[in-house]
Amino acid sequence: MKIVWATPYCEASAIARYSQAVIVELRARGHHVAVYRTEVGAESELPPRDVVGVLEPGSREERDWLAQCDLVFGNVGDYFAYHGRLIELASIRPYVAVLHDWCVLSLFLGWLQATERVNEATAIISRMYGREAGEQYANAKPENLYESAVRQFPLTEWVSGNTLGCVIHSRFYGDRVRAASPGPVHKLSLAYPVEPIQRTPVHVDDRQRLAVRTFGMVNRNKRVDWVIRALASDTVLARVADYRVLGHCPDDERERLEAICREVGFNGLVLEGRVTQERLREGLAEADVVTCLRDPALEGASASAIEGMQSGAPVIVSNAGFYAELPDEMVLKIPATSEGTALRDQLRFVHENRHAAREIASRAGQWAANEFSARRYVDDLEQIVPDYIEAEPYIRTAQVLGRQLGRMNLSGDSNAVQSLSRTLNAMFSL
Fold first, then answer.
1. Which of 282, 292, 329, 401 lies at a 20 to 30 A Cα distance from 245?
2. 3-state secondary structure of 178
3. Are 284 and 213 in contact (CB under 8 A)?
4. Residue ranges of the alpha helices (H) in 140-206?
5. Of 398, 418, 389, 424, nearest to 165 (Cα)?
């Protein structure tokens, strides 16, 4: 099979890491795979993780692959700099969208900014979700914009409605995607292989410190502030906690978190900023507990949680989205909107019950290594590819005719459009 895999492919992207694992497995099974890089701007100049099969943007080779391949997969995330070329790709050849994020407001706004259409955002959101949603967007403050988007205008329909179908990595957003996608929607468990972590040699009963770690880009929905407040609320935890956050932290968020530390009298926070892969692995190895909290939960799956589960340390997660679908016996869950005693109690459990916490981590590591393997992912991918190949001619024809009917100002519920739809259904037997 000949596949174009559209993805960010720079070293810093977690989606690129996933893509590389899947591509290697596909090629090992005899499939021909070319990489269509989706980064734009400065990120497009970053070196690829691997040069094999990477298409030069805009080249004749790229055009030939897009015209001749059996199928195109496009990886969708909520960061325009990494995924901006997907908008262009959709106009060249429809793709199967692999939805890593279900709320894609940043991708949407990045596209509008790149095309100098930011002033159209309110009107577009109003057309898709109604006037009230448009007003919510127009009046939202930066600090609560994403919460409003999740509730009223996640833009899932904007990105999934112009595809051949979708792959999702958890079930919680499946109904919304199925309602918008013109083609098949299948759920696969994210492929995210993790190299074995060599634990830092600290005795499991050492209670003189509690190494708490959070990984990834720092923003409000990662709820680092919850962890600070939970640790500060317990005199023992506040004394022993070594809380380090490994990932880029914007200046305004750094200032906010440091102000919270001063407010509650917590001195154990270290914001390390962007770190190397080596330091990331060190952080995983030294952790006594990993926190993966989200409010709201935006990801289709969490690379941080998957890595954490294979680190040998227990992982505390919010009981929401992807995290809610993890087996209860593999992670420590707190209520989705909890910043109160539940988080403090789980941190205290880890500190006071080191052996039991490590047993949970051991079970989680064994389960996650199989559940999130590239082998399992490609096994399932090979089973669903025929569904998308079968659907493509129908969907491409419908898209062309839909654009023509739109230019004729015919609505979707008109007699002419309904008659054409019945004819197409009969022709393609779908």
1. 329
2. helix
3. yes
4. 145-152, 156-160, 174-180
5. 389
Where do the domains of the chain lie?
A: 2-104+154-192, 210-371
Angle at the Cα of 49 from the Cα atoms of 284 and 312, rounded to 5 degrees: 15
18 by Cβ neighbours in 10 Å (0-12 / 13-18 / 19+) ranks as buried
Q: Is the pLDDT of residue 137 over 80?
A: yes
Could you count the other beta carbons within 10 Å of the beta carbon of residue 113?
Answer: 12
Q: Which residues pair with 186 in a beta bridge?
A: 167
Number of Cβ atoms within 10 Å of the Cβ of 74? 27
Give residue for tokens 């926070």.
269
Indicate if the pLDDT at residue 307 is higher than 80: yes
Please give the backbone phi and psi of residue 247, each rounded to the nearest 5 degrees, phi first.
160, 155
Neighbours of 236 (CB within 10 A): 13
Q: What is the pTM of this model?
A: 0.88
CATH superfamily, domain 210-371, is Glycogen Phosphorylase B; (3.40.50.2000)
Q: What is the pLDDT of residue 415?
A: 77
Cα separation, 207 vs 46, whole angstroms = 43
Give Cα 4 distance to the centre of its chain.
Answer: 20
Residues forming a β-bridge with 101: 299
Q: What string of H, E and C letters represents the secondary structure of 17-44? A: HHHHHHHHHHHHCCCEEEEEECCCHHHH
Q: What gap in Å lies between CA 109 and CA 149, rounded to an integer?
A: 12
Say how far residue 75 (Cα) sits from the centre of its chain: 10
Please state the rounded mean pLDDT for residues 221-239.
96
Residue 304 and residue 87: Cα distance in Å, rounded?
A: 27
Query: In this structure, which CATH number among 3.40.50.920, 3.40.50.11930, 3.40.50.2300, 2.60.120.200 belongs to the domain 2-104+154-192?
Result: 3.40.50.11930
Q: Please determine whether the domains at 2-104+154-192 and 210-371 fall in the same fold group of CATH.
A: yes
